[in-house]
Amino acid sequence: MQFRTHTCGELRGADIGKNVTISGWYENLRKVSKNLGFLVLRDFYGVTQVVIETEEMMEQVDALNTETTLMVEGTVRERSSKNEALATGEIEVVPEKITVLGRCEHAALPFEIRRSKEADENARLRYRYLDLRNPAVKDRMILRSKIVADLRRRMTEQGFFEITTPILTCSSPEGARDYLVPSRNHPGKFYALPQAPQQFKQLLMASGFDKYFQIAPCFRDEDARADRSPGEFYQLDMEMAFAGQEDVFAVVEQVLPPVFEEYGLYETASKPPFTRIPYLESMDRFGTDKPDLRIKLELADITEVAGCGFGPFEGNVVKAVVCPAFPGSRKVIDKLCADVEVQTGRKCFWFKLGDDGNFAGGIAKFLPDYKDALVEKLGLKAGDLVLCAAGTLLEAQKTTGAALKIAAQAEPSYMDKERYEFCWIVDFPMYEIGEESGEIEFCHNPFSMPQGGLEALRNEEPLSILAYQYDLVCNGVELSSGAVRNHDPEIMIEAFEICGMTEEHVKAKFPAMYQAFTYGAPPHAGIAPGVDRMVMLIAGEESIREVIPFPMNKNAMDIMMGAPSEVDQKQLDDVHIAVVLPEKAEEAGE
After folding, report:
1. If you write DSSP's letter for every residue of 71-84 in order, what string do you get?
2. Within 502-561, where are the H helices?
3. Omega into 95 within 30° of 0, i.e. cis?
4. What span, in angstroms and rounded, lies between the C-alpha atoms of 113 and 72?
5. What is the DSSP letter of 240?
6. Beta strand 161-162 with 91-102: parallel, antiparallel or unpaired?
7. DSSP 100-159
């Protein structure tokens, strides 16, 4: 290559005596005297020590800021003091010439490159190009690249064809807000960026393609979380014709575990078949539809104590989780309960079984009449802690489910952490009552096949209908939702009518899919595990932003590029858009 004969991670003892050219970033200089110093040069592949041995060359280097890019031409020699921690630690380069390729004009950097992960997140995102120079950050991007390449290879080996689908499409009710793109040629009309390639992959099945996949970009205008990036993300999107739920499971169970085992923080992953847990059972046992099966704790129902005289229990469902031989003090337990309340907004209560066989602490004074029954039902032993919560069934489940997880984080013996534990959550309800609307809405994907088909839609109570929908969960993180698709136009219309959409509305909203199904579509099913979440789990990172090259911040802003940004009036005129900003609070009289 023009600027190097070797990379900064390549030279070894066998290269001693060679004339070489290396290029990279000037990382640091340990100056011993005016004519002796040790410069570390870093590139994508590693670091090499360069020994400065002349006063003239020392003056040249000393005048430069760190992170300047340099080309060093010189001779490889054996290091007198070897560094076994470095791949290049047995050699050094004695330069004959040092050339500045790209000058760093800033004497002070926003953060130290190798410690950038300790810097403020906004600083890291604003100077992401510097953050990515940190080998620890860069390695996450390399890991991501390897995982994506391996997923592609394994999907191809399973007989899938990679097909790209459109980015500019129509708005579709997928469960989140769309990003809209105004049309210049069609005033008043908009494209939408796809929340997922859902309709297109189903249309591919109707077109006669048997197995489709792609590493698909998806766009959703939703808030950030630790495991969710706002704006855009990528998923391993797949669909299979003439296939059902078990066929999808079989593919995923062959493709994912080897990838997790090869690249993961832990060496062990679930072997097929993964555990299957119905949604309602998962909520009842774990208080969540995203259970971490590494945790050895489960919920129990103790609603029989609702009449014990403790006000918050009165007339409510009461759920509990037993923490065997919990070693924490009263202060630790109170902190645990406080953390549950912060996370759920609901109170968590507790009591323990003492060495004397009686309940103690927390709400114990309300429970003496229930002691024998609870000890037998919960299998309590001296030293066991019981965490409990009350409310509606769902409230009690979710609160105690949060307590289960927080307790496992507090006490390592409750969790077999060093593995990837997958499971399928199955049999989701087809419909639910929307929290905001108060009306019947689709619980998951609106294009799912109801269990029982047309007969169930016409004859059963909507909230009792189950769907062929499933979630893939790993270590308490939802990696994906999937479903057996509704490929029958009659069933499709009936399903949407239950949510208040007429036949005409369905035909107008999904014209291509509806029409394609009227020409004879095969049964088909699919899933789309999130690539970002998979890499996050494999890398052992707490935040999904650590595995995305250029992530947005929590407010869905790219502060490096300045997006979203204002545009000039001509651009707005071209797409027939008038911007109407919300009134300021004081102008609105609020």
Report:
1. EEEEEEEE-SS--T
2. 503-509, 511-518, 531-539
3. no
4. 21
5. E
6. unpaired
7. EEE----SS-SS-GGGGGGS-HHHHHHTHHHHTTSHHHHHHHHHHHHHHHHHHHHHHHTT
- Contact (Cβ atoms closer than 8 angstroms) between residue 283 and residue 397: yes
Tokens of 321: 């989780």
DSSP-H helix ranges across 186-329:
198-206, 245-263, 279-286
The two three-digit tokens of residue 275, written as one number: 């555990």
Give the whole-angstrom CA distance, residue 309 versus residue 216.
55
Report the chain's C-alpha Rg in angstroms. 30
150, 161 Cβ separation under 8 angstroms: no
Q: Which residues pair with 177 in a beta bridge?
A: 221
Is residue 113 within 8 Å of residue 134, measured between CB atoms? yes
**What is the C-alpha to C-alpha distance for residues 561 and 317, in angstroms, rounded to an integer?**
51
Collapsing DSSP to helix, strand or coil, 198 comes out as: helix
pLDDT in tens, 467-520: 999 999 999 999 999 999 999 999 999 999 999 999 999 999 899 999 999 999
Asked whether 386 and 321 are in contact (CB, 8 A), the reply is yes
The 10s digit of each residue's pLDDT in 309-342 is 999 999 999 999 999 999 989 999 999 999 999 9
Neighbours of 194 (CB within 10 A): 25
Q: Report how far apart, in Å, the C-alpha atoms of 77 and of each of 51, 74, 92, 345, 547 are.
A: 10, 10, 6, 65, 38
**Pairing between strand 477-484 and 524-527?**
antiparallel
